[in-house]
Design a protein that fits this description.
With 237 residues, the protein is mainly α. 65% of the residues lie in helices and 0% in strands. α5 packs across α6 and α5 runs parallel beside α9.
Amino acid sequence: MLPLAVQRALEDPSWRPKPGEVLPLPPAAEAVLIEHYRAIPILTNKLGITLALAYGGSETVVPLLANAITNEFTGRVLSPQEADIFAGLLHLMGYVAQRHRAAYEFLEAACAPSFWSNRPLPQSPELAKSGIKLEDSLLQYTLIGLAFSGRPEALVFFEGIQARAPEQWREHRSSVVDAVFRYRMLEKYGEAYSGGKALSDFDSFMNAFREWRATPEGAAWAAWSHPESGQRPFRRQ
């Protein structure tokens, strides 16, 4: 018999499991979910399956998500909802990276503006009308994915960007700062944050951000995102 979470993912396309609701998947159950994932062409119709695989899957999920991000939807026209879900696949890869190093390595490789600007992508006309570039949204979610990996090397990676401050990151510094903040909140609250129980509304999230920004670390990162302030970058002791 399939685990209850797998049964629900297959029977109810509207189900959106949270981290902790899907236990590690037995190989046979994972294979069933992957088979159904590949048979469903529309991203919104297989989001529940995708979430279940991200939260409970083995390392087999890494190439599946990587292909979805870099190849499966290339050239398709996405609605605003689909574009959000598509970018969110990178966030989900961060959950996979908590368990599997290969997912982290994918995110780190994708965490460069050139990775997205030089790659054929889906199209999102409605997003473009609002002045948002899909590649910028994808880079932002890649950084968030790294943060949600919770891996110490993710923070080292962010600090490397801060230390080198390459020109290609000039327009994306605020996204790096946002990722560092999310990393610290995951460190502080753990699954309560990743599962949406802590800082789940806009006001509490922004209050936490303001509190973090008032710390020496947060203030230095905020200053780095606005180089004209002249404040030195924060260095961990």
